[in-house]
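Ticket opened by: R.M.
Priority: normal
Category: complex prediction / small molecule

The reporter submitted a protein together with zinc ion and asked that the result be attached to this ticket for the collaborator who will pick it up next week. Submitted input follows.
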Amino acid sequence: MKIEMHVHTSEGSPCAKADAESIVRTYSRIGYDAIVITNHFDNKLLKDFGRTNEERIERYLLGYKKAKAVGLKYGIKVMLGMEIRLEPHTEDFLIYGIDEEFLLQYPDLCFMSQKEIFELCHSYGAVFYQAHPFRNPCRPQDPRFLDGVEYNQRPDSGNHNEKLDAWIRDYPKLKLISGSDCHNLEQAGYGGIEIERDVSDIKELVRLMKNTQVKFIGR
Ligand SMILES: [Zn+2]
Ligand SMILES: [Zn+2]
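Result attached by the on-call engineer:
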């Protein structure tokens, strides 16, 4: 099963140029079996998504829900993830294993520390990875509070994976995943993971990610 782990849709991420349906159609065409929608959970964006937490979360989930609704039509599984930025920093983190209920319960995630959000994710059965840790202006964050890091292979993106290769040697417990950080149709399919068996949902995928080092596409 081939899974894209990091993709945005224009409904949830204003920086993304492709809507949910065109993303799903494209990933189906290029041979992926599933995608994880990881729109930005960023306080600067959320403020404009509504007045109440319920309105903001509803708007945040719009891209995922639209993608999910057309997934069946294109024969592709759509799962929920998140790319979060913690105030006041510029690093991005990827969360897998959360759901709508979690978001409604913890709408102020952006104001937590890395340690707090890592522990919260674990208490919910979710996992917490740093996205593209060497892409400027990002710097690798505290490895004690990470499940792993993303090996981002999107071209011309300043990922500095040679630095990541060197850095991660000191942290053998950290897992690696790969994702495209796809913001438009030209950026589709530069990463992801490949697993032997099918998973039915994000919770099952997360269990697999915790227990094994999943094989990632490319490199
Ligand atoms: Zn973006
Ligand atoms: Zn991203």
